[in-house]
Here is the input.
Amino acid sequence: MKKNIGNIDRSFRIVLGIVIAVLGIVFQSWWGLLAILPLGTAMIKVCPAYMPFGISTIKQEQQK
Here is the structure.
């Protein structure tokens, strides 16, 4: 798969995933499992939701 997540987007997803996980632990809620989505997409640098729309947050210099 072609990578479509840039560095800023990736950083945002990591922070968001950590915040969701911590809130899930603090409030003892299974909703904290949703942290898997932003953390997973940040790690593989591919967002399936971006693909149908042709969105990429990678700068042109990084794609080469």
In short: Residues 7-26 form the longest helix (20 residues). The mean pLDDT is 93. Residues 23 and 32 are 6 Å apart (CA to CA).
